[in-house]
User: What shape does this take?
Amino acid sequence: MTTDELVDIEIKLLMDGVYQVYGYDFREYAEASLRRRLIQWLSGSGFATFSLAQSQLLRDRVFFDSLLRGITVNVSEIFRDPAFFKAVREHVVPYLKTYPFVKIWHAGCSTGEEAYSMAILLLEEGLKGRFRIYATDINEEVIRKAQDGIYPLKEMQRFTKNYQQSGGTGSFSDYYTARYEHAILSPSLRENIVFAAHNLAVDGDFGEMNLILCRNVMIYFKQPLKERVLGLFDSSLLQGGYLCLGTKESLYQRQIAAHYEAITARMQIYRKQYANK
Ligand SMILES: C[S@@+](CC[C@H](N)C(=O)[O-])C[C@H]1O[C@@H](n2cnc3c(N)ncnc32)[C@H](O)[C@@H]1O
Assistant: This one.
């Protein structure tokens, strides 16, 4: 048996153990990227092999949390893919405005940038007091950061550019206060956002959403897990509601695709059809 084959067996055993002990299911994550990230984590763990690390990982929650941080990719940006947010303003907001109150779910929200971007967009579109955003992630540490809404000041130039390109109608600097090396987002943006831990691989659905966004999350999943998660979204989304995926993801060949209409060619915005159509 080669060393690589042995490593694959160790990873499989470890992922089974992690699922049984902590309930986090990484068994359906795409192998190549999971393997790469685990090996990177191992090199900084102080252990020579996954088998040696396993005993502590299954007994020590704090140590396991370091593994969790290593596995999940938490990169995000305010108004990431500005053209996407522009398309939301153009195609989705008119639908949201037809409701007195709307519910939005950001699944895999990481450190909160996407949810804050949506709050800014909806406020600028006149929906103050008429929306609630549920922003969830598997990783509780990023949820805590999201709740703080504090980002490195040096990112603000890029975020401001994204905001402007996304069709922002005000001045981005009105949404944060600079303090030393940090930008603190205006607490009023948080008023309509509920941040919570939620694991798409094992947890249940959220009811009656008008809009669900899950961008740059399912790229790390194998096909059966993608199907599970899309089923979860389908049962959480109202008829006529919108589902948004990342620019490298799509509903192509997915089970739920027949009930969804692609709204834009490039931006992966889909509308759930009404049942009688
Ligand atoms: C690359 S970030 C994407 C953040 C944001 N949606 C964006 O596009 O900027 C991927 C996020 O998915 C989260 N994630 C990974 N597996 C998950 C799962 N099973 N359930 C919920 N979130 C998960 C990670 O913790 C990470 O924060």
